[in-house]
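Go through this:
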Amino acid sequence: MTYRAPQDDILFAMTHAAGMGNGVESGVYADLADGAAAAVLAEASKFAEGVLAPINKGGDEHGASWKDGVVTTAPGWVEAYRKWREGGWGGVVSPTEFGGMGLPHLLNSACLEVWTSANMAFMLGPMLGFGAVDALDKHGSDELKKTWVAKVVSGEWLATMNLTEPQAGSDLSALRSKAERNGDGTYRVTGQKIFITYGEHDMTDNIVHLVLARLPDAPPGTRGISLFLVPKFLLNADGSLGKRNDLQCTGLEHKMGIHASPTCSMSFGDNGGAVGWIVGEENRGLACMFTMMNSARLGVGLQGVALGERAYQQALAYARERRQGKAAGFKGAGMAPIIHHPDVQRMLMTMKAMTQAARAVCYMTADSIDRSHRLPDAAARKIAEERAGLLTPVAKAFSTDIGNEVTSLGVQVHGGMGFIEETGAAQHMRDARIAAIYEGTNGVQAIDLVTRKLGLSGADCVRRETADMRATIEKLRAANAPVFGAMANRLDEAVESFDRATTWMLGKVASSLDEALAGATPYLRLFGLARGGTGLAEIALAAHRLSNNGADSAQNARIATARFFADNIAVGAHGLEIAVTQGAGFLQSAQATLAVDA
């Protein structure tokens, strides 16, 4: 099935759920006015549909290969990357001083969604470049920026993030990689890293690795981690490539999905130490790396949206063609296309509504990032920065959970053929599975949300978010449109469940952390339902205004999708509230119960 970028739905979500419309009016998004956002998205969509989508299935079947430290990407990858570079796509959001376009994160997020829908395995490499540029721009010295950043922005070089080690996954305090001062401003880095996305490949002639390691006199734990820029090739005085640095790819991981993305095990310093440069201050590397990780977390959330969209498109096309059984609403001859069966309709609407809710949450997050940089008032920028911090774990975890659920439903719609690789439905499910794991597992995102983000500004940040959701519900009620059905009531129930769970959570974080952590994951899900549902409601309100009294089928569909989410998905909020506030009782018996099964 051919992928088609849902440009109209994306632009509608950007405008009405994320706030691009009022941002254009206020001047925050002056560079997206007069159709500029639509024009850029149209070109990005052409690249997705014409270059990336055609090589997706072949890349999955062929994969990347490793031999004697050399990694060869799947057929078509090098040529596709050449076209990516020529299009200047690596610079959409990057600062103009480094050759980028300096456009908003919101627009880049839309582009990243369509590219990832077309080919997630390909886009994993370029996506990391956006975060690396952010980290180096914020924390790097002037000399590092001058030497390295423009090359990543232009796409001449790709970048990686090297965190994970065999004994140090989510817990980076266990990190063992070392760095020693050379005395000339450089460092020698040694250690082993695993699960390094695009750690080695044949798409660029140099790779900029950002590597976490410890100095000999570093304090223990995460306080003693530093960040280093360690290139594959060192540079000559004139900026040309010099000798190979002391690092190598020792193998590729054999994965469940994203087969064409080279996931590498890396060895640094087998012959004395890889030469690197400090990024930021010594022993402050984790703070620097979090700049890159937070960028990547939104990008990963968009992967959930992207694969949900791709799976939905394919399942919808299959359901229109596949004929099985009789359906009451089908008047044609013979067996009915399965799209006429109510349960298949339920699955397809679930796929559509959940994907669009996740899209709304991700785009809200991107908008908050933009406003934290673009608003003229410092106090308003701080509020936007806190909102971005609050929403980022929700965007990452809620959206990737939805990616898993929607791609699984896509297989279910296909029936037995979904379990057969030739249809491609299984690839979306396999590819989506990793997104809930990397860049901090979704459980880690939930812990971050309840222990670090809820308390921002004395909980004023989360209270502002709740007030914003309530304001949307009041607009639904004020519209008093029969087409909305019980949407206002259903979303009000969800938001009030979220508010009560928030109050409980804030109290337990202070008084009984284990109980708070036991409820963290259902709390994040509850947050996603409330925020995603009200985001869809903003889309429905705009669609109603533009529907020409119900004559516009596209606007009617947007309203129906938001109403389906409210009536069929957001109603799970009350159960999640109970799980958050009363579910921690299992802690008393869990250890003994699990020991019985050991």
